[in-house]
Amino acid sequence: MNAATALGLPERAQVLGVMAAMGESGLRNITYGDWETAGVTNPNGTRTTSIGLFQQQTSWGSTDERLNPTKSATLFYQRLAKLDGWETLPASQAIHRVQINSDPNHYSKWEAAAEQVTAALTVPCAGPDLELAAGPREWGGYENGKIPTSALARVPWAPEMRLRADAARSLTKLNAAFRQTFGYDLPLNDGYRDYAGQVEAKRIYGAEAATPGSSNHGWAIAIDAGTYTHMRISFDSATYSWLTTNGARYGWVNPDWAKPGGTGPDEAWHWEYHGTV
């Protein structure tokens, strides 16, 4: 599960990883697989070479890598993150597309148990009574503004925008509550901003924009919220008031520097995901 966190993936990914390991090996790091137990072959007739928690074949990595729990989990999560739309797929089907097993529903029976295991071991997300973590920072070994789209998740109601997967998942929950109050989805004017986008923002906005390569948007855990017509929200707007009251419950905050009296610039529309403690 730590492997998912290290890649910036949300709790849902952790559940899928546990499900996969339960369905493949019963959470046992075994040195044999389907060929040894049942004579299973690949579609081309060759023997399967599955080993480890995830029963990964030689195409996944070396024997040492596949028998190393952390490395084998990392290999699983890296392929999961590259699967477009995995967050919205039924759990077993998402795993099936990573593992390429014969039955897309094979892992379904372990979903409830995997959720229990994950809930017991996962550090809780920040809420109103929890100290929030630090702001946007490096993750996954990526550079600011140079994060591959395969490592990011689309925002469901604004699919042209992407965020780190856990930030997108939390924002989706926040948006559901926002929609219940206002009757429409939270308007977004910006999310992840790649390096080229930061250069363009600097050209357009000058001193108001961050130096390219240092924008908080470049870590894919910041948004710019808008009005219903996608104008910038103000500090006296209903949207800002609602986000101030409810945002931290989902890990989203208007950072101190962006508030009146902060180091500036004042940006009521700028919100960052500080959600894990």
Automatic annotation (TrEMBL):
Domain D-alanyl-D-alanine carboxypeptidase-like core: 162-275
SUPFAM superfamilies membership: Hedgehog/DD-peptidase
Alphabetical GO biological process terms: proteolysis
Annotated GO MF terms: peptidase activity
Gene3D superfamilies reported for this sequence: 3.30.1380.10
Pfam families: VanY
Top-level division of the source organism's lineage: Bacteria
CDD domains: Peptidase_M15
UniProt-recorded name of the protein: D-alanyl-D-alanine carboxypeptidase-like core domain-containing protein
Provenance organism: Microbacterium caowuchunii
